[in-house]
Amino acid sequence: MPVISVVSLKGGVGKTSVTLGLAGAAMARGLTSLVVDLDPQGNATSILRARPSKTTVANVLEHPTRAEIEAALTPCDWEIGPGEVDVLASHPSVIRFDSWTHPGTVFKPKLAKALQQLEGYDLVLIDCPPSLGALTREALAASDLALVVTTPSYFGTQGVERAVAEVEEIRKGVNPDLKLAGIVVNRVRSVAEEHQYRVGELGSIYGKATILKPFLPERIAVTQAEGFGAPVYEVKTQGGREVAGIFDLYLSSLLRK
Ligand SMILES: Nc1ncnc2c1ncn2[C@@H]1O[C@H](COP(=O)(O)OP(=O)(O)OP(=O)(O)O)[C@@H](O)[C@H]1O
Ligand SMILES: [Mg+2]
Q1: Rounded Cα–Cα distance for residues 40 and 229 (Å)
Q2: Which ligand has the minimum distance to the alpha carbon of residue 43?
Q3: From the CA of 150, how far away is ligand 2's center (Å)?
């Protein structure tokens, strides 16, 4: 059951879109996946139209038991198949688990403990909040792979540096099995010189192989899918097909890692 965290320090770069793009690609292949929404904003929970559940990921972080996580799981309402997507829904109160901790405080991962007791999924995807705080550390501690998302911009490159350092920190500490799966460069406009420059810069810092190919282009289909509360492959436009095809390639490469 590979667990993949989708992370970035910067907000609005496309973490949720990438998480749901991968969940959609998995669904189209007939796989059963779980999306853990660790972001107090709850964007993934609402786009997946998760059926209301009495408990959420907040309860699981409080009591990381098998009974608690099983009780909190809820199906998404995409119902397109042939696969399935379940959701560990977010709640605004999850924010209290993101509080600052004093350096040197012993970190005892809770989400990892809960997920270890779960079985039956082909894939677990964790959508992280836009910070590298305690919630993202929970996600990384529970993951086999970390996928860093960025946009081709100056601040994006800086954010990638911090995210990669955080992955390394968790790998050296609580989760030696964690691997950097790669960097997704999102919202690329091939004609924009600045974008080409930033893509080249990321390749020269992290190695060309670390950057997932092809880049994710800027396409209105991504925003439309979000508005419909549907996977992007349900947006029957050229852009929808193009982006869905890229997520399918990303999924293949992640499942090989
Ligand atoms: N490739 C793309 N083309 C066009 N729009 C995109 C693309 N990727 C993301 N967007 C849009 O950008 C906005 C932000 O994306 P998203 O919510 O996935 O980012 P995020 O990193 O999860 O944000 P947050 O940090 O707030 O959680 C959304 O409205 C989404 O539809
Ligand atoms: Mg998000």
Answers
A1: 18
A2: 2
A3: 12
